[in-house]
Amino acid sequence: MKMKIKYFLMLALGLGIATSCTEEDLNPTLAQDKSIETSINTVNDLNAVLIGAYSRMQPTAYYGRDVIILGEVFSDNATSNANSNRFVLEARMDLLATSAIAETLWAQAYGVIASANVVIGAEGLEGDQATIDHLKGQAYALRALAHFDLVKFYGQQHVNGGGLSAPGVPYVTAFRDNDALFPSRNTVQEVKELAYADLQTAKDLMSESLNGTSTEYITTYAVDAIEARIANYFGDWQRALDASKSVIDSGVFSVVSEGAFLSTFATDGGVNIIFEISNSPTDNAGINGLANIYQAGSYGDVIALPNLAAIYDDGDVRGATPYDPAVDEPTTVIGIHPNGTLRNVGKYPSTAPYEDNIPVIRYEEMVLIYAEALLETGDADEALIWLNKVPAERGADLYTEATKDNILLERRKELAFEGFRFHDLARTGMDIPYPDAILQTHEGPEYGSYNFALPIPASEADTNANVPQNAGY
After folding, report:
1. Which of 269, 315, 358, 433 is the most buried (most CB within 10 A)?
2. In terms of residue numbers, what domain contains 315?
């Protein structure tokens, strides 16, 4: 059943609209202040506010499109053909502090954080304490995930040798804090540790028995999966191993079969879905969402690069086959259109009414994190077993050796069009490949370039002296 996005208190709260994480921007109006202070009294009230946090992950500015597309066009997977003049500057990696996408992603993620902080800070509630704790645990996990998304894009860890001591993003832990009107940028190390701490708190508060069946809410398994993703990004291999193994050992999920792979992206839930963003026929990003930007039509600006299509084995369901949208149903993820353009037609496939849920965490990612962590902790034989669990269900050739290159290759194959490629290149210290001088427009920035981070929005840097602008902008 689709998540019912009922704002209750949160309809009035403009948290997701704020363009700065300063205290002034994260505060509600006086009337809204009164609503918050007097209206969160029961577990049902708390749940309504939490749903508001989930709803703020859905718009175009966050998981509804931009956070995913940026991870593709910043890499060697995709580019913009400027069909409707969308993602042109992004594909060139030529953004400014005044660029809209830098501002809207920042604002939307901090809106999620603000909503989560309302849930975390609520006190004196009526209702079952275990249920209250479970809801608050979800808010802690959402807060960790949103800050991690922010530091991936705005942190300076991959710029000029910045590393973990480089400026990250402000880690905001209270909805209103009069002692922190203008929060400072935490270091990347601090953001990482605070996210881990939030995830541990989520684990302490949540109960597996209260998870429910919907993958549109954070579960105890999703908390472990978020931890595994963060640990994988930062190279905390034992933590990545333990967290991904916890998801695997739950027995709740499995690698989806070759025959069911494409349908996974056109239906809700599924054996491989750990957490997804809700879309319904009446509540979605519409023409501004993922389907309309990937597929031919009024937008259709984001196309796949031939270099990506070339990495797949013959018969791999994730590869490329001829596809005429007027007459065909997709049989592979990449469709070769009659004009020769390569497009993602298999993931987020539904145009109007744009009701496909958006997978945020799939089990296949956990399997590949587990394989990489096994390799990094010295068990290459076991790593090979887990690495091959994914291609075995895709009609692809199996690997004969577990190497870092092979694991990254399989991640590229499996997670293409889902926003991972740029971050995989960054976390492994790689230059951005430039295999296509005709279609690619960013010309392959070298690792360490200022292009490896978005600019801090001008609206933030200009009003908050504690958030200095990123290098190069």
Report:
1. 358
2. 286-344
